Amino acid sequence: MEFENDKRVKKAIRGNKKAFEQLIKQHYERIYRTAYLYVHNEEDALDVVQETTYQAYKSIHSLKHPDYFMTWLTRIIIRCAGHILKRRNNIVPLTDEVLSDLSVTYHSGHDEAIDLLNAIGHLKGNYRSAIILFYYYDYSIKTISEIMEIPEGTVKTYLSRGKAELKKSYKDEEGKCNG
Amino acid sequence: MDNKEVKSAIEKIVVPKEKVFGAIDKGLKMSGQGRKIKKKKVLAGSSAAAALLGITIASGFVNPTMNKVLANTPLIGGIFQEFNDSMGVELANQDAVTELNQSLTKNGVTVKLTSAYFDGNVVSITGFVDEDVEKGHNEKGEVSFDMNFEHNKGDNDPWLNGKSTDIRKVKGGYDFQWKMEYPYKSFKENSTLPITIHNINGIKGEWNFDIPIQQEKNSTLVIDQEQGYPDDEVKIRIKEILTARASSSLIYETVEKYKDDEIYILKAIDNKGKVYRFGNGTSLEEAALEDGYHSTARTKMTKLNSNTTSLTFYPQLSVADPKVQQLLDKKSFTLKSKRLNLGLQVNDITKKGSKLVIDYQFTGLSKELSKHQLDIFENNLKYELLLVDKEYIGEIDPENPVPPKNHSIRMNKVKTIDKKTAHFQSTFDLNGEEKIMNFKLENTILQFDFSSFIPAKELQPFTVVLPVGNE
Question: What's the CA gap between A137 and B67, in Å, rounded?
């Protein structure tokens, strides 16, 4: 039996724009949130969404297995977010001054969720991807290794180091907030 | 820290749905049209601040203005708040949402429709489907409807153009909202909309509904003013603005010499400085006449203030340059853009084993590529050089240009040779995922699309005076 979504992905692969649009819009929250986790502001996140849509539509004809649509799309989101981060790093000098100016507003939020997002935002690129894919997407180590194009062992390393860093900075944040 | 904690933290990132859909539409348009190069802000300081502050802002859970509005909203408004639909909330406040209570159970799955509204060109239907839908084939948390309106078949259904579905997990099942753009030219005051859901997540139905859609208040302002852009060979005629309870819609016509050019109205500003935004638009009529391609569209716009006396429109033109191509029976040649003063000069083509290397540079660029432009070139070149077997080039449908499988290669690795002279090298893997069966250089065509390398052009804004006494 053919799955409903499968059918839609197959249509999209054959170049059906409407099917493709429906697929992307079906996952809009996940796409946006993933982008946001990397770029941390609305404008850039929307840029990532736009770019992802464009890149995905351009290359969907090369997607072999409809089952892999979501993992394939995720890879594109991460790549597009990476491009924007790279570009931004070229133009945005993050001086200590800017950071210390902002830290007051930054830590005034008492919500743990903010601290956690904040901590994820400070992870190194690869650690961050591994953490997002594992905890937010519930992907297996194997799938993550395919998306990130790295060996499974490396995924495990990234995950455990990422977790350790998260715990550390997350705990730090909590300490600051309570004390 | 566990999965749940991370997930619920991430789910607190507020998603600005309309804007995200807007970005998706823009992305799709870029692909239909060649790529537009977005102007990039270079405000270093503010973007750093935004990067850091974004997360604090994002934790606003629910939009505060929405909360305020909701304080005195009837119960039905709740579902619109859930979907972040401010228009729905406003209509609920005005008592202009039709409450529905139609429910059907097929194969153990119950679908219940709860509300409908029709305002301007927007039709919204909300409903609930119970959790038995999880027995279907989709991932948990996904609900996908295979459906049609007005007994249409498959994709041949004007209501599906621009239809969006939003889903929220609630106790015992899922709430959903469908939003459609009203597809016809004229509005009927009272009518019903037949809905057929063929299957949900692969579970067969059918669930058949017939729901009333009505729009009582709708005033028309006839404007009919034209603005021409002779240099760009396009014209825009602002025809009418329809104003409903919570939104307006704009009807306008464009006349283009080149069919694939696209004109967007970015925004409009009225005499008081209020900014109006526009939606995607539904095409109402298209015709090829002597003076060019005419097309009339209707698009959703911010509700027009009743005391507005003039509106200044900001249009943007995305130029479609016809694709150019050359048979690779020689090693060097120049491809010239038909409408832009740009050229692609191919210096050399070499085949090394299973790799084909094309060495080329751009001519006619007014100045050296900036870092940002270079990024864009490096990126776009990966997709915009297409190798096709000459026997199969005729098979590419111009309306839907999908390269023929096994007879074309698009993906290539781009290397910048010299930034100053816009000199690049593309390497195609002839034995990669994409391939050309029985590859022979002299039977291969290189196709190139210059459209992707020029930014969309902002046309001169123009002002229209609105007839007095608009309501």
Answer: 30
**Chain B 52-111, residues with CB within 8 Å of chain A CB atoms:** 52-56, 58-59
Q: Can you give the pLDDT at residue A4?
A: 59
Query: What's the CA gap between A35 and B120, in Å, rounded?
Result: 32
Model ipTM over 0.85: no
Residue B241 distance to chain A (closest CA, Å):
28
Q: Which residues in chain A have their CB less than 8 angstroms from residue B49's CB? A: 98, 102
Could you give the CA distance from residue A94 to residue A98 in angstroms, rounded to a whole number? 7
pLDDT tens digits for B327-341? 999 889 999 988 878
Say if residues B143 and B201 touch (Cβ distance below 8 Å): yes
pLDDT 10s digits, B181-212 = 888 888 776 788 999 999 888 888 889 999 98
Domain locations in chain A?
1-92, 96-179
Rounded distance, CA B294 to CA B256, Å? 7
Residue pair B7/B13 in contact by the 8 Å Cβ criterion? no
Give yes or no for a cis peptide into B206 (omega within 30° of 0). yes
Q: For residue range B247-261, what is the model confidence (pLDDT) as tens digits?
A: 899 999 999 988 878
Q: Which residue has the tokens 């990024």?
A: B375
On whether the A96-179 domain is CATH 3.40.50.2300, my answer is no
Instruction: Please give the backbone phi and psi of residue B238, each rounded to the nearest 5 degrees, phi first.
Output: -85, 115
The answer to whether A62 and A72 have CB atoms below 8 angstroms apart is no
Categorize the per-residue pLDDT at B31 as very low, low, confident or very high, splitting at 50, 70 and 90: low
CATH class of A1-92: mainly alpha
Chain A residues within an 8 Å CB radius of B280? none
pTM (2 d.p.): 0.60
